[in-house]
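REQUEST ID: PR-0412
SUBMITTED BY: lab tech R.K.
PRIORITY: routine
TASK: structure prediction, single protein chain
INPUT:
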Amino acid sequence: MESGGGGGGGGGANLYNPRTVEEVFRDFKGRRTAMIKALTTDVEEFYQQCDPEKENLCLYGFPSEQWEVNLPAEEVPPELPEPALGINFARDGMQEKDWLSLVAVHSDAWLLAVAFYFGARFGFDKADRKRLFNMINDLPTIFEVVTGSVKKQVKEKSAVSNHSGNKSKSNSKARVSEPQAKYLKASNTKDEDEVLDEEDEDEHGETLCGACGENYASDEFWICCDICEKWFHGKCVKITPARAEHIKQYKCPSCSNKRARP
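STATUS: complete
OUTPUT:
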């Protein structure tokens, strides 16, 4: 990796310049996923790299979904907008959760700056900018994911919509796809399967992954943390359906790190 995270970010921009709304949004999602990883599943490593004794450091997210803590770009002005400078200096001056929330807010601002920098550079018109913003706005912010406010919003919606009190989540810690379940229920009629599908989508459609913040989809494997009760894509926390069967009490990376830290 080149010295200077900005240099790394700039280099990535040279190799790949998103030119359409869809390409810019894909770039945004990759960088966003990377930064969420740094602040959630990889938080221990991120915390250690942000040493207050080092020089001004920035958190970079790349379209490849990889993150990096590094010095800012040396070139002025930089090829891409730069993230917040000196995040490491504030690390020991506040509670860890407050510091992570602060980094999350600045990361959200940086992602928007990069996305609309591409939009300006490649001549997006009013309709393109509006479409790009709406696509971005449909995703929870990094701040919402890190602070858990996404979970609170989903709970409030669920409390209003779920009149039956049916809590199938608590009955099954890990979710497998509904299509797979159908093959196991060969005796069910087509109408019954469709009803089950609709009920599953109604109940879980607004559930968001605690790691990447994406919505629940019926064809993906999910697992619930028994400590914080957040749901995660199996792929985001590196848990397979086979492995989940042997886990009596699942702890997500964040809860595991909290328990391990003195």
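NOTES: Confidence is low (pLDDT under 50) at residues 1-15, 163-172, 175-190.
REVIEWED BY: pending
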